[in-house]
Amino acid sequence: MPRIDCLIASLSLIGLLLSLPALSNETVIESDVLEQKDTNKTYFVEPSDKQAPSDTSMLFHIPGLTVTENNGPLGKSEIRYRGLAGSRLKVDIEGLSLNNPLFGLSDANAMFLFAAQEIQASSQSLSISLPKVDHQFAKGIVGYGSYNSFKLGTSFGTPLGKYSRIFVASLFSSTDGSFAYANPDILQGPDNIFYRQNNDQRRFQAILKFEHCAPSLNAYVLAAFNSHDAALPGFAFSPTLNLRTKALFAGLSAGFNKKIEKAEFKLKLSSSLFKYESSNIPEEHEKFLTSTHELNFSIDNLSLPEWLDMELGQILIVEHSYDQKHSRIGGGLFIRRDMRFKGSLKPRLSAYFNMIGYEKHGLLFKKDFALTIEPSPNISVTAGFSRVQRLPTFMELYAHNRFFIGNENLKKESIWDFQIGSHMQFGNHTRLQITGLYGFLTDLIVYEPFMASKVRPKNIDRATRYGIDLGINYEPHKWVMLESKNSLLRTKVKATNSPLPQSPAFLGLTRLRVGPADMLALSLQSRYRTASFANDYGSKATKGYILFDALLSGSFAEFFTLSLSVTNIFNVKHARDTYEMPLPGTIFFGQIEVGNS
Amino acid sequence: MKNLIIFLSLFLLSSCKSELEFKQLPQGPIKHQLIVAAKTPKSVRARGLKGATPPQTAVYFEVGNFHASTISKLDGSFDIELLDAHHTNSFGLLNFTTPDKKNFAERYEIKNLHEALNLIAGPSLSAPPEISFVATHNNEALILSQEAALLRRIQINGDWTLAKPTRENNILLNPKIKEAPSPQMIEAHNKHALVSFFNAGDVGLINLEANKLINNFKLPYNPPLRSAQSVLALDNQSYLVSFVNFDPAAQDSSKAYGPGVVALVEVNNNLITAAQVLTLPYVNPYAFKISPTNSSDIWVMCTGAFTNKAGEALKTTKAGLIKLTLSSPNNIKVINIAHQIDLPDFVPAQFELVGDNLIIPELGGNRLLVLQENNLKLKPLEANYSRKFNFTLASHWHDDILLLGDESGALVAYSLSEGFFPFPFSEPFYVNKDQQIKFMPSQIIMRHTSENKKLEQDYLPGYGAWVVSHRQNQIIPLDFLKIFGP
Asked: Residue A197 and residue B308: Cβ atoms within 8 Å?
């Protein structure tokens, strides 16, 4: 069965590629791969974010986003954005969904952030964008640091002729993972130093994007591949010395836009495979293979007044789990409208409506609405509402193993959010972002105890979440920059009278850079968070912490960059993101970058 | 300014006062912790449980214009019901005249049981983040944390709350970071404690005075014993340890359980030696209980091999109860199987012994087996109660009354003589009042049992029991004086 999916995906891609020349003398159409919304916040990836061993460094700059490092910097890390994780948080790269139907998104290091240019964050999703290729560039990096962490990467982009461009990037990273940590439950001292065992990690990621932007046609092909072979060390003092996992993601997305008279037609096909295997001694194997295919076809009416854009489209989604032998097929439509009104406040309205019907689960809705005004040229204020529904994952529906029993009667879960936010710019040196959120989840799926030692998902009432994100960037001079991103969040699951797991009440990062980023710069940053809970009952807590990092980087002739990062300078060994999952002590990492970008 | 400082100081001092307030009971021969006055649908009833008064005490009960009197039984219990008095006052008078002609009068609040029962459970104690098993020993809570492989020793306060945990007394149970040992249970006696490790299949000996794990011992046996489950201290030197012999790699869960084994081990000079190993006729030996009527009799409950499949009710095979007898011919301790009881079509949960009765709730089910020890045929006295419960355990409270844990978080009282819901426990009461999700009670630890006392002895203010949920890592304390007492 997996071969059939690969075949379908390959044939679709070949078909699209073959059809490109035939369509090449049509009119220019603007690229619209990434869905834009006014309530989204855009976070740009800086060069310094890629000078640490982990891909996830960039994510610390997004207020409200928690990166839960379970197995050191290159291991599988969970992300939560304002309390949402897994299948509740949609993540895509250039429109290609990185969520799998089994778990949702389960690893922040598998988000291709090494190649990213920016991330757009809404209250319920993250969208990753690749760099725009408007000139030729090529870069190679090699880095080495503590715990034998090693990184080797390349990225290359070039225009191809007048209308086409290509971007290719790959990264190999590995570590032996044997880092030192301390136990926060016993007295600190020389006897309280232990080493994480069975934590080696090897990861290979590659991404390719080809775009053709001829006067008559806009088309693209995106291919992404992630392979992660790792040991799973288990809990700190209850290690699993022989447990290993392999995860593989392969995704392919292709599409084109074509204008015919007063209408613009868009077609996009995305397919992905996700494979997960674990093995242990004594012999225990677990294997999952899933595929997702999504077809979008839409029409943008170009004859509408200038102040109104409207797009109507259809969606077909097929998800299949091979080992569980279950499929689900959904089909529906979407409408997107953007309205720009005249007036001193320059009001803009954007609305998105999506309805997909599934045979067993009924209709699934997604609604977004946002109003933006600009009281002054440097201030914009946006108020928005969004509601998204998600289907239970295949694990939640059909799993049956020693720890987890699926529930085929699960209903879809809804996430509702109201947001109001403002972007402000003071002079050319200060930017301020503030966002208030109030939202709730209904028909919340929680995992309740089942039989003697298992859990079983169940729909139960609701959870609320509300909070404030605050971001400040202050750069009075090329030589000095101060950044502070903080979030306050309160969540509560009514069924358990507890917060959502891994959702600290206060979380943030503050960074000071001295020296110009493109010459010689020293960055000092602090990451901090209050206590959070590791389970659904609010009873298994992990204490808060504050860690300090430093990064020294020097660029020469805009072609050669040397950097040295020190993560957790004060060697705090007892900090933990989640219960019994230690964070490493100090990590040194040196990196050489050659090439232009 | 001076007044302001005094006011602020007083304000701060008052805010430091503990929020917990426990009822103070009058001292004397009347044990108010066993006396309740409450409304029923048609009456007001005053009841004294066994030991409430000295035998043959004259009891007078008055509520408004209604009154009645009785003489307490030889066991000190009494029961007075005032029909139609439930519409009258909220308070009544109980007067006791003991056989030595002394009078004791007390004003009793007439409880609304529906409200009062749900006040019994207090707020979750400030306990460690992970609670896999709790034992008490010399005013200390010994709390096992499975994932942290840690024993936390926490002082128990006089009101049976937990003192603030400190790191000084925590003991690492896997200091060499070997494969997850999975500590399962702990039993302490004098200066030693024994911990069973399920994954490692060995037992750990802890010296409580030195506050350290001395060593781990794998008992010499062929084939090697696996999955140490339960531990029972017999005296200073002798312990019983049960082994499940679970094979996690077995594809078929029903074949994952090897023969159940009980080992008699001796602790000498900080060493553990196996004195005797006994293979049981059933599998999955989960728990031990010493007979309250004969301390040489020890019951072993074997849960059986779980065979449930997706969508099916919980089932086990080869489940049963075994009575071991401990004897000491030539001063050498020996255990023998004295009797065994098959439990076909019944998945036993944590059982309890009351007098010569064995009370076995059905794990995840609605049935209760009550067997008489001296009548060892399988003879259920009570089964299939009409209300749907999913039992997890039984724990003896007082007299012939037990508390049964239901997985939802309800506690259900059962009396051997009266059946379900004996007065005043007339309905289930919940320990997870602000939750809609299963609490899964795993242990109920009675304070008086833990302190080797009888409930009719002088009452100490504070909580009377803990309900422990291993799944939720919580300890919920119970204050029975929300219904009992004046």
From this structure: no
